[in-house]
Amino acid sequence: MSCGGAGQSGWLLEYGLEEIQSSDFIYMAGDPAVSSVLLGFDVPRKEDGGQDTSASKKRSRPESSAPPGTKACREKQRRDRLNERFNELSAILEPGKPPKADKVAILSDAARLLGQLRAEAQKLKSSNESLQDSIKSLKVSSSSTRARWLDSHSPEERRADEFERVKCMQAEKSELRDEKTRLKAEREIHPAAAFAQAGGKYVPYATSYPPPAAFWQWIPPTSLDTSKDPVMWPPVA
Fold first, then answer.
1. What gap in Å lies between CA 166 and CA 172, rounded to an integer?
2. For the chain, what are the domain ranges?
3. Which residues form the BHLH domain (predicted)?
4. Nearest CA to 190 among 169, 212, 174?
5. pLDDT at 135
6. Of 87, 103, 130, 208, which has the fewest Cβ atoms less than 10 A away?
7. Per 3-state DSSP, what percentage of the chain is helix, strand, and coil (rounded to 5)?
8. Alpha carbon of 6 to those of 14, 15, 49: distances in Å?
């Protein structure tokens, strides 16, 4: 075959073209059997966990393994501190109970308690102001009363009043001193002397004092007479 001349430009028509009949084969892109035959290797299927296997091959990086100083580590520390503050706030709001996990509820309780404390503080402040006003008015009235008293009394009368006041105070002190001396003397007195002062009557004996030698001298003579003992108390009795 040569392709030298222009007249020979239809050389391709000299060869007969064989008609190839089409087959009924339809390639399914999702068929693993066809893919393995045509491509020469196994294609993983979705239900076999092919994607899960590839995902599991990726290296997982837990949050706790972040090196210190990184943004993730700083964020974790910030969240931990925030959770600790919320736990402390919950313990203050409800002592003796486990801390709440709902941060919104904790903040609501804190806001409610803060409002109550502010109202109580305002009440205390107003009562304190009223007390201060009362004290000021009492001071003013006392000063005015003293000024009127000084104006109504002469210096001699004021000195006389002061002298009487001092004299009354000294008299009260002397009375208290005498009463104290008398009570002390009564405590130090002996039981025998107390019996003599009582006119021969029995008096309670203080256990703090040593017992006396004998009490026969205060026994009546009729009780000391033993001549009638055999008659009144025979031996057989």
1. 10
2. 153-188
3. 66-117
4. 212
5. 93
6. 208
7. 65, 0, 35
8. 15, 18, 64
The torsion region of residue 60 among left (phi > 0), alpha (psi -120 to 50) and beta comes to beta
Distance (Å, rounded) from C-alpha 86 to C-alpha 102?
9
The 8-class DSSP code of residue 119 comes to: H
Whose tokens are 């709440």? That residue is: 100
Cβ atoms < 10 Å from Cβ of 90: 21
Helix 103-152, helix 71-93: angle, nearest 10: 50
Euclidean distance between CA atoms 146 and 152, whole angstroms: 10
Q: Give the span between the Cα atoms of 67 and 61, in whole angstroms.
A: 11
Residue bearing the bigger pLDDT, 130 or 32: 130
**From CA 117, how far away is CA 186, in angstroms rounded?**
61
pTM: 0.32
